[in-house]
Design a protein that fits this description.
This protein is of the alpha+beta class and about 325 residues long. The chain has 11 helices and 13 strands. Strand 11 and strand 12 form a beta hairpin.
Length: about 325
C-alpha cells in the first residue's frame, strides 16, 4: 500500500491540479497558513520571503491544491487546534503530538512546496533541469508520507520520528512569533501564553540531546529571549547532526506502519562551533539589540539567558529585565 501512495518527490510533481497530499486531480485549494491564524493577526497582506530572499509572497496568496477530503481533514484539525489555542498553554499541551505534527507539517510542507515551485520555474526560464539530490528526495518523501497520516491509515510504531516540545511562554495573545527551516523541517511558534518547537524528522534525537535543559524548564513560564535561545540551540544542533534517518515502512491489511530503523550506532554530531552558533543566536536576538560581540565576550563564558554559565542553574525568567 505504501508504494501506492502519492510521493511528489519521486517525479518532482508540484502541479496546481494535483492534490499536494494525495495526488488526486482537483481544482480546489487550501491556504498554507490556517485562515483563522491569518485573520487573527492580519497576516493576509503581509509578505513572506523565500529562502534566497529574491522572491516573496503575500501570506494570503500561498495556496495548496487539495482534494475535498484533504481540505475537510485539515479543517477538522484546525478546529481542534483553535480550541486548544484559545486555552493557551494548557490547551496546546493537551494535544496529541501527532496532531501538532500534522498541523505544523501542513505549514512547513506548504512553504517547502512553494520553494520547489519557485526553484523549478526559475530553472525552466534558464532552460535548466530542476533536480533534487537523492538524500533530499528521500527525506522529503518520508516527511510527506508521514503527513499523509492525516487522511490515510498510517501508524507510528515505537519511538516517534520527531521532537515536539510545548512550554508556557510570556507572550500575549496579540503577539505572534514563528520561524521555519523548510530544508531541515523545523518550526517554532510562540503566541498566547505558549510556545512550541518542532523538529519534524530528527527521530527524537535533538529532544534527547536537550533533555537536561528541557527538564530544568518544567514549571517555568519562559521569557521570549529564552524561547529564542532554546530554538537557536535546537536549530544549530540539527545543523551539526550527521544522521541519515532510516525507516521501516510496512503495509498490512489495516494500513501502513512506520518505524524508525534500529541501529547500534549512536547519533553523531559535528564539532560545536561557538562562532557559528553565536552568529545564529545573534540573528534571533537582534530584536533585543544583542549582537554577536555581546554573546562571545573576551575572557567570559558565552552569554545565556537559559543557564548560569558557572553553576548551570536555570535562570529564573522573572529575573530577566528585557521587554517581552
Amino acid at each position: 500500500m505504501a508504494e501506492m501512495l502519492f510521493n511528489p518527490f519521486k517525479d518532482l510533481i508540484f502541479d496546481e491540479h494535483f492534490c499536494f497530499l494525495t495526488g488526486d486531480l482537483t481544482n480546489e485549494n487550501m491556504s498554507v497558513f490556517p485562515e483563522w491564524l491569518m485573520d487573527h493577526f492580519n497576516l493576509g497582506n503581509e509578505r513572506i520571503e523565500m529562502m534566497d530572499k529574491t522572491k516573496s509572497y503575500k501570506y494570503a496568496d500561498l495556496k495548496l491544491p487539495c482534494s475535498a477530503r484533504v481540505k475537510d481533514a485539515f479543517e477538522e484539525l484546525d478546529t481542534k487546534i483553535l480550541a486548544a489555542y484559545n486555552k493557551g498553554y494548557e490547551g496546546m499541551a493537551s494535544l496529541d503530538e501527532e496532531q501538532l505534527f500534522q498541523w505544523t507539517g501542513r505549514i512547513v510542507y506548504g512553504l517547502l512546496y512553494y520553494e520547489m515551485v519557485y526553484e523549478r520555474n526559475r530553472l525552466q526560464k534558464k532552460d535548466e533541469e530542476f533536480a533534487l539530490s537523492m538524500p533530499l528526495r528521500k527525506r522529503f518523501g518520508h516527511f510527506h508520507l508521514m503527513l499523509q497520516s492525516l487522511v490515510e491509515p498510517i501508524s507510528f510504531v515505537g519511538k516517534k520520528p520527531w521532537t515536539i516540545t510545548v512550554f508556557p511562554l510570556k507572550y500575549s495573545a496579540d503577539i505572534l512569533s514563528f520561524r521555519d527551516d523548510t530544508i531541515n523541517l523545523m518550526f517554532s511558534f510562540g503566541v498566547n501564553g505558549f510556545g512550541f518547537i518542532a523538529c519534524l524528522q530528527d527521530n527524537g534525537v535533538i529532544g534527547e540531546k536537550h533533555s537536561e535543559i528541557l527538564s530544568k524548564i518544567k514549571g517555568h513560564v519562559l521569557h521570549p529571549v529564552q524561547f529564542e535561545e532554546l530554538y537557536a540551540s535546537f536549530h544549530y544542533t540539527d545543523y551539526i547532526l550527521k544522521q541519515d534517518p532510516q525507516y521501516k515502512v510496512e503495509s498490512h491489511d489495516n494500513g501502513i506502519n512506520i518505524e524508525i530503523e534500529k541501529t547500534e550506532k549512536p547519533p553523531v554530531f559535528d564539532f560545536w562551533d561557538e562562532d557559528m552558533y553565536a552568529q545564529l543566536l545573534a540573528n534571533y536576538w537582534q530584536v533585543y539589540g544583542i549582537e554577536r560581540e555581546d554573546i562571545l565576550r573576551p575572557q567570559k563564558p558565552r552569554l545565556s539567558f537559559l543557564e548560569d554559565p558557572y553553576t548551570k542553574d536555570f535562570i529564573n525568567p522573572e529575573s530577566i529585565k528585557l521587554p517581552f
